[in-house]
Amino acid sequence: MAVKSDIEIARVARKKPILAVGAGLGIAAEHLAPYGHDKAKVDAGFIRSLRDRPDGRLILVTAISPTPAGEGKTTTTVGLVDGLNRIGRRAVVCIREPSLGPSFGMKGGAAGGGYAQVVPMEDINLHFTGDFHAITSAHNLLAAMIDNHVYWGNALDIDVRRITWRRAMDMNDRALRQMVGSLGGVANGFPRECGFDITVASEVMAILCLAEDFQDLERRLGSIIVAYRRDRTPVFARDLKADGAMVVLLKDAMQPNLVQTLENNPAFVHGGPFANIAHGCNSVIATKTALKLADYVVTEAGFGADLGAEKFFDIKCRKAGLTPSAAVIVATVRALKMNGGVKKEDLGQEDVAALTRGCANLGRHIANVRRFGVPVVVAINHFTSDTDAEVAALQDYVARHGADAILCRHWAEGSAGITELAERVAELADSGQADFRPLYPDDMPLMEKIETVASKIYHAGEVTADKAVRDQLKAWEAAGYGHLPVCMAKTQYSFSTEPNLRGAPEGHVVPVREVRLAAGAGFVVAITGEIMTMPGLPSSPSAERIFLNRDGHIEGLF
């Protein structure tokens, strides 16, 4: 029998009305704004009413370094919540919204897979409730107001050579990375070099996902640095009087989106900051709301634990006052063999030796998560090509590192295939073992924070940065930004800055070529290697295979 695709499975899902899903969480109908029958937003008044309730347990799902073989982090996140509910625990999933760029590019959507998905899968992976469009509009309103201010006399004395705010769109389009705008004559303004970032890389996205409420949102938006004057003093969004209108555009986008899993368990899908240039986690407001409504909240962070988990702990948890109780590291036999040197086309063949070599990558991630004082369990996301010998070797390796590695079949079996992991996660979360602590203190100098992440998480031997970068960091410290955490922009494929250097390299050099101040979001970005904020489409994008069939159903989305 042919295996059904993700979209075929999602299409025949027996969904509950979203008001019923909300009622199961104790959210009355008047506090939900339905978008059709299967998705809704939770209003701010209801969220404020939850403040005095105790919090549930927060569980992070992270992963080994991603490979083309796939790891299944979102699928495991969703499956774990179904598994927890199956064993009688009240659990909610909190994940990010997918970007249209990857959905039509190479990566595909981000709603899970197989029988561990959130639905409606098509809506979530496409326009959903319009949050990304609202964020794009707010971002571009600010960009338009900058150029408009310059056009009408430039009272703020903005140096047009030092405008740092670019434009945004939610699509992969390399042609827009760097360009010249305002061409065509006097009526169109002053020509200058500019460009576009993908919406998930916008600081507005990061701000929405870190803001606690509308007042915090407006304060953060107003604190965005958009340009510099000729005397090098910053120009803020509030100086342009743009912050109020931006909040208006984001009024609905700030409200968490409630949907459900294939097994009708509640899911908050809200926000989606880039895991390279930003912190790669779903919104604080969704996570905190879920913690008030459930005993266990399972969330994920983008890419492997060296990026996603580190930023979850050092940025999101630090800023929001969150305390994680346990962490799950997702690994696959296939991906570990690839880390051990096996080519993608040969992954179907048993190779215990390559698996064992690749396990060094997993061992590094286990040690890194424990460094934050959070207990760890490994989820082996099962593929049919896995052999008993390979699974046993993987479990033996993890056992030698003082943790459990549990085989999970949620992709094929739903909650029934992940109950063992659910039991272990609940046990860890309830054990009180967690002693969460960020990697570095707030008062550590910015360059030392960068070096701490590079040495302790990446196992780098050296961080290089030219004098201009170091001077910029010192200037920000003098301006009152030294307490901010650092957000490392690095390739997700390796602990190093070289994407093809797999496994667990040590002693490598991390070159910091640029630093950026996200003053509104509240972190300093250190850009290493070749990180792009506007991806391009591959030679054969997924968009070529996505279409509407004669029955009006979407085909090719995954």
Describe the structure.
By secondary structure, the protein is α/β, with parallel strands linked by helices. Helix content is 35%, strand content 20%. It is built from 19 helices and 25 strands. A hairpin with a 5-residue loop joins β1 and β2. α13 (333-339) crosses α14. The two termini are 20 Å apart. Pathway: One-carbon metabolism; tetrahydrofolate interconversion.
List the helices and strands and how they pair.
Elements: H1 6-11, H2 18-24, E1 32-34, E2 40-42, H3 44-48, E3 57-63, H4 73-86, E4 91-95, H5 100-104, E5 112-113, E6 116-119, H6 121-125, H7 131-151, E7 158-163, E8 167-169, E9 179-181, E10 192-194, E11 196-198, H8 203-210, H9 214-222, E12 225-229, E13 234-236, H10 243-249, E14 257-261, E15 266-269, H11 284-293, E16 296-300, H12 305-320, E17 324-331, H13 333-339, H14 352-371, E18 376-381, H15 388-400, E19 405-408, H16 410-413, H17 419-430, H18 446-456, E20 462-464, H19 467-481, E21 486-489, E22 509-518, E23 523-528, E24 547-548, E25 554-555
Parallel strand pairs: 3-16, 3-17, 4-15, 4-16, 8-11, 17-18, 18-19, 20-22, 21-23
Antiparallel strand pairs: 1-2, 2-14, 5-6, 6-14, 7-12, 9-10, 12-13, 14-15, 22-23, 24-25
Helix pairs in contact: 4-17, 7-8, 7-10, 9-10, 13-14, 14-15
Helix tally equals: 19
The rough form would be described as: globular
**Percent strand:** 15-25%
Terminal residue distance = 20 Å
- How many beta-strand runs? 25
| Largest sheet, strands/sense/barrel | 12 strands, mixed
Binding site for ATP: 67-74
Keywords: ATP-binding, Ligase, Nucleotide-binding, One-carbon metabolism
GO molecular function: ligase activity
Enzyme class: ligase
